[in-house]
Amino acid sequence: MNQSVIHIIKNITSANSSRSLLQRFIAYSFRQSIRCKFKRFGDRPVGESLKILDREYRTDEWTNIPDKVIDLIERHDPLYKTPGNPIYLIAESLRQHYTDFECFQFRDPVVTTWQNFDSILVPSDHVSRSKTDTFYVDKQHVLRSHTSAHQSECFKRLANTTKHQALNDPKFMIIGDVYRRDEVNRTHHAAFHQAEIVQLYSEQHCRMATTNLFDESNETRTDHCQERHNLNAIRIVENELKSQVESYIHLMFDSTDGDPIQMRWVPAYFPFTHPSWELEIQLPRNKSTNDNGEDLDKSEWLEMLGCGIVEQSILDRDGHSNRIGWALGFGLERLAMLYYAIPDIRLFWTRDTGFSVQFDRLKPFERYRYRPISAYPQKIFDIAFWLPAECSEWSANDVHAIILEIGGHLVEQAHLMDEWTRPKDGRKSNCYRIVYRSHERALTNDEVNRIHHRIEQALVKELNVEIR
Ligand code: DAH
């Protein structure tokens, strides 16, 4: 793992081993209150119509969404649904790991302030509710600042279908784009992605058979347990939560030569869970060396997720008073940046094919290290040719070999774009697209033309094709 990537990702968080719970509470509040350089950016005249994904709102003194952010929302395909985007691959890896978890995706990120804050017990004077931290559509609507905003409606939806089915206790995940007012730099972006994963358990749940979920004589909340909860049951749920997360992190980050990743659970504060934890990881030795092979400081820990035991008042309210459960929230960008060594959060949004082509064919959990794309423009040229009449031995690999041999490092991508057979005589034609780009300079048309022409000549000579 490249040192600068670790350094950058560390900046997203500020994990510090020795923080007390109070300090973590303050850190939580502070983190939610992101310093915003352009506080008034996005303010609009009052009383105008504002359309987001075909729903219409009327601006008021709370509205603070810039057009650029609306463009991100209305982008044709959300990143988590776009194969070839690392966010999609990470989301898929979670779906594969958390099998049988129902997956909810709420395309529209506009939620009510009740959903975003009250439904998960965020205090009414909490800084995250301020206009400087959250994008307000109007006084009553915001862009969700976390996927936790949808917990309540998922609970309610599942309350009816799973009422009397212990073996069918709700397990679900919510994957979505979330928005926070923030400065934009390598580690911060107004839009990012989260996966909220939740599992509930009822008393009849087979593993729970030996213990009661509730202990009505338990009237006081401790650091380890909410009031009314039975500590033994909580320990089982806590253990399931943690072991599932740990096995995912091992799958993702253990080194290929068997060096396991180091993890630790640190007490944390979230308004909607108690007790709560954050998971911090320390990359294995061979991953935490810099490019010169020097070890990084092994005492540096990265914060990976927040989680905890769901506040019982939420479950009582949403139709699951006979259940207890855990919830967790992963940040998909952080996982992706770490897993693929992607140094800049803005890259996830690029339409540069030099980026997407690197992830197009990857499968979830397939290790890959991102290669930086050039800042110079691409030159896109096509070659169309007739295959030789006798082409039983034809192999596309030969075409690629010739393209790479002549184009060398100036070829960023080459792929078969079109195949066609002429009906009248069955003759086959191929069209290849070659994307040229240099890491050092902007290529000129003349220069690329010359290389392209030499590739054409070599294809004719070596493979006996006829240029069309
Ligand atoms: N909603 C939290 C955030 O955005 C993340 C989170 C923390 C989700 C703990 C959870 C949880 O479900 O239990 O910072």
Provide an overview of this structure.
By secondary structure, the protein is of the alpha+beta class. It has helices at residues 3-12, 21-32, 67-74, 86-97, 113-116, 151-161, 231-253, 312-317, 332-340, 353-359, 396-407, 445-463, and strands spanning 49-52, 55-58, 102-104, 110-112, 136-138, 141-143, 171-179, 191-202, 262-270, 273-282, 302-310, 323-331, 379-386, 411-421, 428-436, 466-467. Strand 9 (262-270) and strand 10 (273-282) form a beta hairpin. The strands form four sheets. Strands 3-7-8-12-11-10-9 form a seven-stranded mixed beta sheet. The chain has a four-stranded antiparallel beta sheet with strand order 14-15-13-16. It has a three-stranded antiparallel beta sheet with strand order 4-6-5. The chain has two domains: 3-356, BirA Bifunctional Protein, domain 2, CATH 3.30.930; 379-467, Alpha-Beta Plaits.
Observed structural traits:
single chain; 468 residues; alpha+beta; BirA Bifunctional Protein, domain 2; 4-stranded antiparallel beta sheet; 12 helices; elongated; binds 3,4-dihydroxyphenylalanine; aa-tRNA-synth_II; ligase
Q: Count the strands? A: 16
Order of helices and strands: HHEEHHEEHEEHEEHEEEHEHHEHEEHE
Which structural class do you get from the secondary structure elements?
A: alpha+beta
Q: What do we call the CATH topology of the largest domain?
A: BirA Bifunctional Protein, domain 2
Strands of the biggest beta sheet: in what spatial order? 3-7-8-12-11-10-9
| Cα gyration radius (Å) | 26 Å
Runs with pLDDT <50, length 5+?
Answer: 11-18, 34-39
Averaged pLDDT: 88
Organism: Dermatophagoides pteronyssinus
Domain Aminoacyl-transfer RNA synthetases class-II family profile: 175-364
Domain FDX-ACB: 374-468
EC number: 6.1.1.20
